[in-house]
Amino acid sequence: MAPTVGCNFWKEIIRCERTEQSSQDNGDRVGSLAMHLKRKLSGIGSSIAASPKPAASKLNPWSSNPGHPRKRAFLCGVSYKEFKFKLKGVTTDVKCMKSLLLDQFNFPSESVLVLTEEGSHDGIPTKANMQKALKWLVEDCQSGDSLVFYFSGHGLRQPDFDEDELDGFDETLCPVDFKTHGMILDNEINATIVRPLKQGVKLHAIIDACHSGTVLDLEHVYNRIQQRWVDNKPPSGAYKGTSGGLAICISACADDQMAADTNALTGKEMAGALTTLFIQAIKETPRITYGELLCELQKKIEDAKITGCLNVGILDKMFRRRLLQEAQLSSSEEFDVNDKILEL
Asked: Which residues belong to any copy of the Peptidase C14 caspase domain (predicted)?
């Protein structure tokens, strides 16, 4: 079977209109799912509260070892399975990323919140549920915490009217109900999970979506070719930094590029290219630096194109002969990418 590559958003212009389902039905559905998420989070909190712990462990309720820094992750995969522009690889992406966090980085399973459309996790990735999960991720964060936000799904752009963007566009993430309830803008993501980060708190975002380069609105973007950090502060002068913590984002492509959902890199199941290569790189080089990671991601994409694993003819036409995608690194502060080890 020939490898499949695609992002079906390019085939049509999405019309943001209501479906035949009434707004009342939509409201009931979102409310029900929101209640499910609330019960899940309450259950986690109850199980923690029910377990006797020494006083020192109150600072690390997500870790069985009171002396170990707290770890928490929110993983979100949106398939859009009821639409023409559905993605087939996000379920695989989320499962693989969760396994990486549990097996490679010792995240406790009870501290990983998952939203997918499969119904077997913690809820459906509606806009309301995603917003609540993002707030949960950084809630009461304290020094020593390591947080992860992972998203696999569609990303879009829209004109920026706040003069917050150097390129004039806001980047967005698309929940499953974005056609009726709207997208989640980079401004909101920054305010929700970047600004609250206190001194000593570390956040990693891994975003496998189109137009995702600066979707966290971080103030520094690394130029791999020039090997230097580029200023991404908003022209408006608005503050987009943290409250003393560190936010780092690894995204699938630049703001003006698209990302592939493909089986070319796995040989079987559909999966996001960034997710597949990110996991491969970490497993092959456990103590990989950020600089090494960027180079390895790009090398694997280029190798796939050269060897024919990716349908270059289709991609050249689809992306107007631009590079399929080039992984991006952005951060709330500059650091030596060739010295700093990626540790989640």
From this structure: 70-305
- Which residues form the domain of 211? 72-331
Total H helices, total E strands in the chain: 8, 14
Residues 6+ apart with CB under 8 A from 260: 5, 6, 7, 272, 273, 310, 315, 324, 325
Please identify every residue annotated as catalytic: 154, 210
Over residues 88-104, the pLDDT tens digits come to 889 889 999 999 999 99
Assigned domain for 19 exists? no
Indicate whether 43 belongs to any domain. Answer: no
Whole-structure pTM value: 0.78
What is the Cα–Cα distance from 301 to 323, expressed in whole angstroms?
Answer: 9
- Residue that has been written with the tokens 């997208």 in this structure: 183
Question: C-alpha distances in angstroms, 196 versus 129, 192, 205, 234?
Answer: 19, 7, 15, 19
**221-263: pLDDT as tens digits:** 999 999 999 999 999 999 999 999 999 999 999 888 887 666 5
Q: Tell me how far apart the alpha carbons of residues 62 and 111 are, in angstroms, rounded to a whole number.
A: 6
